[in-house]
Design a protein that fits this description.
The protein has 381 residues and is an alpha/beta fold. Helix 7 packs parallel to helix 8. Helices cover 40% and strands 16% of the residues.
Length: 381
């Protein structure tokens, strides 16, 4: 099969310093910032000045069609936990393909779905795509957890027949021998701090609360850990219990049931993703406690916004959800037009706080903007 498109992953150092990648596609990592004791970089360290803001502006504006031509549709493999409750994956898939349509780029996609906890299944998919690289031009990888899937990211990124993008993470690992072309996400740390400030402003100091955390790793460290540190430092909040629910609805339900029984002094439950938030709400509704507990979600998905409207969920850091998919479509265009050096290495979408004190019209306006490609309302799953 003749590939429609062939290009090595963009070298981070090339973006930062105008240097070239080695002939084998490996990155000259010594040119990247020294991060001390951490094993990952943050966007401020790796994005060339102005590139993030420029792409955010492009994503928020009308599409400018692709200037080139293709003999055949580009082939895109998607490896992601889209079988989970969160509609992040489905929405950004829709945003990706609809923006590609607007850009005039012909494409065909192959999806490899899993759940967030199915690490080995994702590894199998990654090996399959790596072995069948001649069938694909781009691979979009949404890791079940970043460190767990690091070897697979490295493997796919090192394949010269693939351009690899990572979804749902924005902290490039320093120890990867091969970096993906670009990372696309919303900043969990930024969302945690936004949520911290909102909660302190609304609920004040000296609050006792509990947490449904996800899977130990970077994402939960930021969504849960950064929130915990912020409310402790700024408001003297006390976390009486932390339950690891593995980002699953069942984990949120079990954690919340335990909290309601064993820690009645906790009047706030912080949930680290949509699935656990929905399980938490379900557990509260089952015993009529949804009005007694202040509950948070994470992401502002359609399910969460519906729960806020019903009075079952109180607040959530709301991503402008379709930004990731739309930005990825634009990145594909930039790569096809040999303009990859203009892209930020790490793209971040916008985040605001949606909450139960907003009017219906205010929530609707946020939802319209966030889901301008994937559509308003819960998706059919």
């Amino acid at each position: 099969m003749m590939k429609t498109y062939l290009r090595k992953a963009t070298c981070v150092a090339a973006v930062l310093a105008g240097s070239m990648a080695f002939a084998d596609g490996h990155l000259p990592l010594k040119t990247l910032p020294d991060d001390g004791e951490r094993d990952y970089w943050v966007p401020e360290q790796v994005n060339a000045e102005g590139t993030l803001e420029a792409l955010q502006a492009v994503v928020g504006a009308e599409a400018v069609p692709f200037k080139g031509s293709l003999e055949n549709p580009i082939q895109i493999a998607l490896i992601y936990p889209s079988a989970d409750t969160s509609d992040f994956w489905a929405r950004n898939y829709l945003a990706l393909v609809k923006r590609l349509d607007q850009l005039g780029i012909a494409y065909e996609t192959t999806e490899f779905a899993s759940r967030q906890i199915e690490h080995s299944l994702q590894s199998t998919y990654a090996s399959q795509v790596d072995q069948d690289a001649d069938l694909y031009d781009f691979v979009i990888f949404g890791p079940s957890e970043l460190a767990t899937q690091a070897d697979n990211i490295d493997k796919l990124s090192g394949n010269p027949d693939l351009t690899t993008f990572v979804w749902a993470f924005h902290t490039p690992l320093t120890y990867l021998e091969n970096q993906p072309a670009n990372w696309f996400d919303f900043s969990s740390a930024f969302g945690a701090l936004k949520m911290c400030d909102y909660m302190l402003g609304r609920l004040g100091n000296d609050v006792t609360y509990a947490m449904n955390r996800g899977i130990p790793g970077i994402t939960d460290n930021q969504r849960s850990g950064d929130f915990k540190d912020c409310v402790a430092e700024k408001g003297n909040w006390n976390a009486v219990y932390e339950h690891y629910g593995e980002y699953q609805r069942e984990g949120g339900f079990e954690g919340t049931s335990l909290i309601l029984q064993a820690y009645p002094e906790a009047k706030i439950i912080h949930n680290a993703n949509t699935a656990m938030a929905m399980g938490s709400v379900e557990a509260q509704v089952a015993v009529g406690a949804e009005k007694d507990v202040f509950s948070t979600g994470w992401g502002g998905t359609g399910l969460e916004l519906d729960a806020i409207r019903r009075g079952e969920l109180d607040a959530t850091p709301m991503r402008m959800g379709d930004d990731v998919g739309a930005a990825t479509a634009e990145a594909i265009k930039y790569h096809l037009e040999d303009r990859a050096s203009e892209l930020p290495f790490v793209f971040l979408g916008r985040i605001t706080i949606a909450h139960d004190e907003m009017t219906v019209e205010e929530i609707d306006a946020l939802e319209q903007e966030a889901f301008r490609f994937s559509g308003v309302g819960a998706l059919d799953r």
